[in-house]
Amino acid sequence: MGLTTFIIYFALLLIIPLWAQSRVKSAYRKYSQVPSSSGLTGAQVARKILDDNGLYNVRVEEVKGTLTDHYDPRSKAVRLSTDNFHGHSVAGAAVAAHEVGHAIQDQEEYAFLRFRHALVPVASFGSNASFFLILAGILLSSQGMLLFGIIAMAAAVLFQLVTLPVEFNASNRAMEQIVSAGVIRNDEERETKKVLNAAALTYVAAAVVALLELVASH
């Protein structure tokens, strides 16, 4: 790889995630100031959609931080950041519905979600060790170690790629659920989609970066 190509790759690895994070933070900041017509908090939105889908065993909990929202399949809990848990915004409703989308996926044993869970240990190892394995393979002129490092990195890339359908499906479920539950009006659908689409960009960016790293390792 030439110096110019290396610089381009390095710049892309830095710029793409920063751009995606900027987009999601901008959309979230904007629509967290727009109150939802339903007047429901994010916690109430999550609880309503969960109950509508018979997921009475899934808890809705508050978690500290900003945009730390997630679904924990082991604890069967939808965890919402403080602002989304207590807030009444369009952004909060969108994020809450998205995380409930993962809970519904879990209930239905959505294939890509199960596959992603199975990949977690391998992908975690790949993310942490692949760079050092590849570097050691180059320095020690060990083809075996280099190949092992590339395979480990490929596992991490596969995890990022499998994450895409999981997240897009959760967002689609979120839109369906908040519309059918009457959480948002028709004129609020556009704002809700913007929040969900901006969040999805972060996963697309992560997948692109992972692919670039894999290509650069060859």
TrEMBL record:
Q: Does the keyword DNA-binding apply?
A: no
UniProt keywords, alphabetically: Membrane, Transmembrane, Transmembrane helix
Q: Which residues cross the membrane?
A: 6-22, 118-140, 146-166, 195-216
- What Pfam families does this protein map onto? Zn_peptidase_2
Q: What name has this protein been given in UniProt?
A: Probable metal-dependent peptidase
